[in-house]
Protein 1
Amino acid sequence: MLQAVLPGMRDAAYGRVINVISTSVKEPIRNLGVSNTIRGAMASWAKTLATELGPFGITVNNVLPGYTKTARLDQILADRSKATGKTEDEIAKTMLATVPLGRFAEAAEIANVIAFLATPAAGYVNGINVPVDGGRTQSL
């Protein structure tokens, strides 16, 4: 996809590449070795691109969502409930105990960060990983 849009971005001397990855690039998630590896590689690729494309006015950043109210979260809660015999509410409480804000994100909260990174106002933000996770990620 980047190969398709990159010529136009270079011609315009402006562009935004925003990847939605995972907080696992900062803290690996247990039992997701392959996923952690691929997401880490994606983050490194983005950092490389940020350096290479910055001179053309193109920024490259990663958004790292935390627990977000989506169909995927519903599936995780149901699967964990089935596997453990605990209720979905009990599973959710356990998950939320690791989130300082104490709640799941709304999808719009992730989208708002992405929207900001896409604007000219974020023109000097380049090559970073932005956790949008209610403070859950313990690393800097």
Protein 2
Amino acid sequence: MNSVAAYALRLGDDALVLAQRTGEWIAAAPQLEEDVALGNIALDLLGQARSLLTYAGQAEGEGRDEDALAYLRDERDFTNLQLCELPNGDFAVTMARLLVFSSYQYELYSRLQYGTDPTLAAIAAKAVKEVDYHRDHATQWVLRLGDGTTESHQRMQAAAEHVWPYTDEMFDADDVTRELTEPGVAVDPGQLREPWSSYVGAVLDEATLTFPATRPAVTGGRRGIHTETMGYLLAQMQHLARSHPGAVRW
């Protein structure tokens, strides 16, 4: 797979896998309004995934469309961040993950929309508006829980510490990003750390939370190395397509 296809694929995988996780909250969120909000966020992410996976298939040139890439790849073929596949757990964990990931996506798409690849730039220009809402939604919940009751504060602090070890992977550069950054196709992920840290740190501070000092986890999602929960996620997501190959809705 060429570098452009690989880059589009990894961004699409991030969005697809987190869409699957976020959608698990529908009919299970703590408030009816949150069922709707998280459902809409999941749909936004799914829309991003469809555009990116479609482009990845076109750039690859092997005849695979968005459905083939979503449903007919095995676990080691997915290159999403491990952060995106973490189980939802406590609602605070989901909000902590959404805060750190949407803040990363916001910085990424804000730059990628001015990139030299017209398709990636167009996808990013649309997605950054959605991600801005995702970030704001997570911010409001982190503030609400962090600066709320003693219990909500403790749970929000624990949630931040739970997801934090997986954040370093967002800023790792590899051969794909290094090859595409110079011609302006991709964004150097290392350049996103400072503005990301500034925003997230300010939210945690306002929420009376302590900036986590946990050590980075051993990750490898970009290389197809995933947590033990990824297989279960894919089994659920891919079951229908694999059970009835070629089936279409009438």
Protein 3
Amino acid sequence: MKKAKDARPHIGIFGRRNYGKSTLINTLTGQNVAIVSDVPGTTTDPVKKSVEIPGIGACVIIDTAGMDDVGELGEKRVQKTFDVLPIIDLAILVISNNIFESIEENFLKKCQQEDLPYIIVHNKSDIQPLSNELKKRLEKDWNTRVVEHSVSAPAINKIVEAMLQYMPESAYMTRSLVGDLINYGDTVLLITPIDIEAPEGRLILPQVQVIRDILDHDGIAVVCKEREVDAYIRKMEPKPVLAITDSQVFLKADAAIPKNIKLTSFSILLARQKGDFENYIKGTPYISQLKDGDRVLLLEGCTHQVSCDDIGRVKIPRWITQFTGKKLEFEIVSGLDKIPRDIHEYALIIHCGGCVLTRRQIIARLRPAVKAGIPVTNYGMAIAYVHGIFNRAIEPFVQRQLEDLI
């Protein structure tokens, strides 16, 4: 299995207090990366650690608070533990003393609701061995592997084997941004505005990711600002097979790039790579159906310093309002913060490109809206739609799908 260069599995460790979760992490990694103590509740909040596990490779381990924590503060810690589920690729449930009760059952049910694979490790088996009856029952009822482990008799190879068996391929593989759209030696033109939103002295992450992906697939990346596109495209030889623009200058790029050259945006590339692309295509045209008083939710994957002309907080709301002519309410949620309202109170959900998120995180974030039948779209696709160039912006991918079918 080829591992994508920027893809690292996210693995969560769950269980009751003082069941040896932190000890298991240290044993798996061969390092003292988690605090170990005999005092129950030492781990109070989810803690992320970038580690290397022999047999797995580079990954992110998340150590969580005990699921049996009590009291008002304990309940908040348990909720934070459950909040980890949408962002991980595999859950390891640690049990001990042959105890598997409602706490464990409820946890695995939550995993199933999230379509999250899991394995079970019976820890501290040197104190009380795992009973064959419980092992068979758990493997049958919960359709997973149960591995017995203890410090005195470590079962690292068996645990890693089970992790590899249940780890989804998506945890390792990241779909290429442009690899299936270009051939050896093709030139791709990247239109990158340098304005007050551009970070000092560097390009934004999606632009860097696309440049790297072009080079990885033996293409040639040519980068210019929007003001130089007209002059450069006239003398550029050979002509690019694809032009990729920052979404906020879509209109300028559409006018400058000849119609025989495919055009899309960085945000739409990311939407196809790790967003809910098919539902984005279906949901985007709903912008035309928005009514007075409708509430639109914008989801940003990262937190950043807000400028006076911020793309999510200012430009997209302004463009959609101008396009629809309706009085709309816009709300924005940054990072992976909780959505403040019942999902049914929103008429449309617009997600950013998600350059700092995983596909699993984005899909999990959008799942409640999709299940509720609420249209979802993406920053770039929404911008293309309100500027009248939606069909052109998605053409490279729709055409590719048709070619794959043929």
